[in-house]
Amino acid sequence: MTVDALTDVAGVRVGHATRAGDGWLTGTTVVLAPEGGAVAAVDVRGGGPGTKETDALDPRNLVQRVDAIVLTGGSAYGLDAASGVMAWLEEQGRGVRVGPDPLHVVPVVPAACVFDLGRGGTFRARPDASTGRAAVEAAAISGPGVRVREGCVGAGTGAVVGQLKGGIGTASIVLESGITVAALVVANAAGSATDPETGVLYGELLQGGRAKYPDPKVHEAAGQRLTETTAKNTPPPLNTTLAVVATDATLTKAQAQKLAGTAHDGIARAVRPVHLLNDGDTVFTLATGTRPLDAQNPLALNEVLAAGAETVTRAIVRAVRAAEPVEGPGGTWPSYEELYGRR
Fold this sequence. Notes:
The structure is a single chain. Helix content is 27%, strand content 25%. The protein contains 8 helices and 17 strands. A 6-stranded mixed β-sheet has the order 5-3-15-14-13-12. Strands 1-2-6-9-4 form a 5-stranded mixed β-sheet. Helix 2 (81-91) packs across helix 3 and helix 6 crosses helix 7 (301-322). The protein is globular, with a radius of gyration of 19 Å. It starts with 12 loop residues before the first strand and ends with a helix.
């Protein structure tokens, strides 16, 4: 039984640590790989990324597998959350072995951040090593294949998409080959997720006729509300959409990097414009390697690539629909479903 989430890839777990209230509106999300790690890669398209350990994922470099990926709020400050994840992994003896003792390991923990500074009202309220540790511990104690909380949690707590509240979303697909491909997204884009003429979500326009166009009067009222709230918000439009695409397929690092690149198409289908200078759009991939690709088909990877983009689009739609409105000292961001209602 699948739950339409990143955790449908066997062994992959997700944990959130959330801080909201008293000046806070931020958090950290950790994707924990199965024991032994997973082949990983990354592709960065935004002009203002904030990342850690992404060079280690280059197919030309030594590290082949990683044990966790960190997605965090707090802009570059929030990357400190990865230190807490590293410390926890070291205690478990998980990481790249660098000495004769099995406990002599260096965990390689790639991380990327979104800009949410000041959105809770206090500029210095941002994740640190303790936040990262709380998120990885939450991932570790979660059961296999469990549902993943979506909306304003973890790294999506302070996320904003255009003029709307953003958040965390996830989705999965099982291919005819039996391979599972899934995505988890932190939707925090400078661009918009909605068509300005109709209010329909861009991502739903590409989902096989599932789009439901809002009533024109509802859309007009939503536009007026957004104009009012946007005028009150002062934080700079510094944003980033982050994603982790996981699969149980057996991939090389080069194939995993190709998957990360094509998965960016899923962002472009759901957000416009995308990959701007003030975005830091970053996609990580994890391949657990329990299902080999068809060795007789040189194009077997194609279905995995297509599914990666599709699940990213669906995850962004779910993030925007799951988000809850925020009104506080750091700004006011209505949610999509507050303005337009549930589908």
